[in-house]
Amino acid sequence: MTYNWNCQRHRRSIRKFVCVSLILLAWSVRSATAQATFSVAMIRPSAEDVKFEHDGRTEVLPDGLHMQDVLLTTCIKWAYGVQDSQMSGPGLLQSTRYDIVAKVDKPVGPDEMKLMLRALLAERFKLSFHHENRELRSYAMVVAKGGHKLHEAASDGKSSRENTANSTIAKSMTMREFADFLSGPVQRPVVDKTGLTGKYDFVLDFTSYLPPERQTMGPEATNILMAALPGELGLKLESQKEMVEVMVVDHVEKPSEN
Predict the structure, then answer these.
(1) Residue 113: CA atoms inside 13 Å, Cβ hemisphere, count?
(2) Counting C-beta atoms within 10 Å of the first and last residue's C-beta, which end of the chain has fewer, N or C?
(3) 141 and 93, same structural domain?
(4) Would you say residue 68 lies in a domain?
């Protein structure tokens, strides 16, 4: 009898431990979810174009996330780290541009801000998706013959990039970030295979590669990039086929009211 009583007491202790563990786990999940939410978010139709920028402007500031003149694809790319050609879905993804001002209660880093934006996209745009692996034509970004012409960043500051009528100016940019940027104008996935792991300051100047009658980029952007990359930066894009993970958007809606 003593043995059975001890066993029953032991089983009750185990059940109690499991229940407490499950409660703590549920609490931690709810806490993590709460931490990944903006205190307030305002979403409005874009009030003004950001000149020369297809993806508008995204800034992580002490008070939150400020996005100007952005598409839904812009938001998804920033939140999930995918490229344009890694997304498939309805026309609503690129039909409307928005200004988004999302506030935080205390300063957070870019990684947590991206989690918050994911939650915002799910809540306000009802975004849902799944992933598929597809074989796609893509580009490998590699160092051209003769070596690269990049310069290490002057300081370990925040990565930034700005387009002008005939150039792209980058500061503290990694090659992965640069590959993500190039994927937009070339309309294919771009994979960084340079082997360069630092951050770089550089100017990609297209002036010498533009047609004589024009001084701004046009429909032939891919051909101009192909010529300018080796000449200006010592990099090049090599065509290839490879399996790429694609985000397939199953559902998305216009944003709910603020």
Answers:
(1) 23
(2) N
(3) no
(4) yes
